[in-house]
Specification:
The complex is a heterodimer of chains A (110) and B (114).
Chain A (H helix, E strand, L loop, with lengths): L3 E4 L2 E5 L4 E7 L5 E7 L5 E6 L3 E5 L2 E6 L4 E6 L8 E8 L8 E2 L3 E6 L1
Chain B lengths: L3 E4 L2 E4 L5 E7 L5 E7 L6 E7 L2 E5 L7 E4 L6 E5 L8 E8 L7 E3 L3 E5 L1
Parallel strand pairs in B: 2-11
Antiparallel strand pairs in B: 1-3, 3-8, 4-5, 4-9, 5-6, 7-8, 9-10, 9-11
Classes of the chains: A mainly beta (110), B mainly beta (114).
Chain lengths: 110, 114
């Protein structure tokens, strides 16, 4: 099956710093989503981005489908950005059975 | 608000007992998914429904697990004869609408089997 690897596994930042999270996947995909899991366990959808670039406030994401990777950029990080960031992909057109990466744990300190 | 509620939020049970979880998407959607997340891991797909039809089940879903979506709206996930290895967060997700593949997750049910 498709493999999804995320890096770095852990990231510690001071408030105001910028960061880039990476997601590599081993096969072509039709669905790619980025999620933020907050300390209470809620998964929050950040981007649906099987290809191209999107921006939402301080967050932006780029997926280069031909090279099988996606990047999530966080600018001017805040303590509320802390949590685990997951990339999830699916190859199919019909089921969207998401395969999640191992996640990047982000801690932002004031 | 993701438009998905789950009940209960926490469940503690003794090994060997049966448990049932419920997932309610606020509005009806074609596709509804169940995932399981153990500590330190990403969620893993268990099963999904299109309307009331259960179309795919993961090998993770042993014969002690059963899921239903009787009227194509809410769904239940039952675990019979629970084992300590079943301790995990059980997550339900829906697609946003008929035309997008974005999945929106509920808050999850955290199961602890003693």
């Amino acid at each position: 099956g498709i493999q999804v690897e995320q890096s770095p596994p852990d990231l510690i930042l001071q408030e105001g710093a910028n960061s880039t999270l990476r997601c590599n996947f081993s096969d072509s995909v039709n669905n790619l989503q980025w999620f933020h899991q907050n300390p209470w366990g809620q998964l929050i959808n950040l981007f649906y981005i099987p290809s191209g670039t999107k921006q939402n406030g301080r967050l932006s994401a780029t997926t280069v489908a031909t090279e099988r990777y996606s990047l999530l950029y966080i600018s001017s990080s805040q303590t509320t950005d802390s949590g685990v960031y997951f990339c999830a992909v699916d190859r199919s057109y019909n089921t969207d059975k998401l395969i999640f990466g191992t996640g990047t744990r982000l801690q932002v300190f004031p | 608000d993701t438009g998905v509620s789950q009940d209960p939020r926490h469940k503690i049970t003794k090994r060997g007992q049966n448990v049932t979880f419920r997932c309610d998407p606020i509005s009806e959607h074609n596709r509804l998914y169940w995932y399981r997340q153990t500590l330190g891991q990403g969620p893993e797909f268990l099963t999904y429904f299109q309307n009331e039809a259960q179309l795919e089940k993961s090998r993770l879903l042993s014969d002690r697990f059963s899921a239903e979506r009787p009227k194509g709206s809410f769904s239940t996930l039952e675990i019979q004869r629970t084992e300590q290895g079943d301790s995990a967060m059980y997550l339900c997700a829906k697609t946003g609408d008929l035309y997008t593949d974005t999945q929106y997750f509920g808050p999850g049910t955290r199961l602890t089997v003693l």
